[in-house]
Design a protein that fits this description.
alpha/beta, seven-stranded mixed beta sheet, 10 helices, 7 strands, globular, AB_hydrolase_fold, hydrolase
């Protein structure tokens, strides 16, 4: 698929990693070196994000599942393991329900919210987009160069802003400000993007960030409803995007999830 940009590295069973709204495939960089000795890792820029072109088929969950099914076939992945964060977590659950993957790891997945929680989450995402669009580059770089400034810019998203580099913060700001898929994705989310399916036939791990300030953690009973045999975990010390906060923990959760049996 020409419109989907991805990187691929490593050895073993295929593992596809899916980022969240406004992010990019490089969100997974902190964990790649821990995953590639064990997995053939494919990091994907969702259509309209990162370097991938907008998707003519729309930005809903069904369109994404169809897109990934085609992507898996075109690249000979069979049924890969899949792990996703935020929107990527929602899409991972949907791929599991569709029977297209061999295991699912969802890190603070979107789509398990109440209407009130959904309105709050989308509001926070719009606020971050607005900041990314309007902040002068010089101001952003000055803030990103200091621990206090990084906390101001990213503290709602990550639990350990001090672990981010100035370069990563700046590249993430540019990616968020420039992604054409942001607005249509949030428009789709306003009218849906709630996961009401059930994932029964593949191993599922749902790991929620302890310091998630974007999405509230559902009750265990709600998580059991969508994945009756799921492994439920809390990522201590992590924010909504946990990969940079605790890469060793996140990598272990993903690898252990792929070794489970449904």
């Amino acid at each position: 698929m020409d419109n989907v940009v991805f990187d691929r590295a490593g050895h073993g069973e295929p593992l596809v990693l899916i980022h969240g709204v406004g992010h990019r495939r490089q969100a997974w960089s902190p964990v790649l070196g821990l995953l590639t000795p064990h997995r053939d890792v494919i990091t994907v820029d969702l259509p309209g994000f990162g370097e991938s072109a907008p998707h003519s088929g729309g930005y809903g969950v069904e369109a994404a599942v169809e897109m990934f099914g085609k992507f898996f076939r075109e690249h000979g992945l069979g049924k890969p393991h899949v792990a996703g964060n935020s929107l990527g977590g929602l899409l991972s659950l949907a791929l599991g329900e569709a029977g297209l993957v061999r295991s699912v790891t969802a890190l603070s997945p979107a789509g398990l919210w109440t209407p009130r929680q959904q309105r709050y989450a989308l509001s926070m995402l719009r606020t971050h987009r607005l900041l990314a669009e309007r902040i002068p580059e010089r101001t952003a770089r000055r803030l990103a160069a200091t621990p206090a400034g990084r906390s101001m810019l990213t503290g709602m998203i990550v639990g350990r802003p001090d672990r981010l580099t100035t370069q990563v913060v700046m590249e993430d700001i540019r990616a968020l400000a420039g992604c054409p898929g942001f607005r249509p994705t949030l428009e789709q989310a306003r009218g849906g993007f709630r996961f009401d399916g059930v994932v029964r036939d593949v191993p599922v791990t749902i790991a929620w960030a302890e310091r998630d300030r974007i999405l509230a953690r559902p009750k265990a009973a709600e998580l059991r409803r969508i994945a009756p045999k799921a492994e439920l975990l809390v990522l201590r010390g992590c924010g909504h995007v946990p990969m940079n906060d605790e890469p060793e923990t996140v990598a272990k959760v993903i690898l252990d999830g792929g070794r489970r049996r449904g």
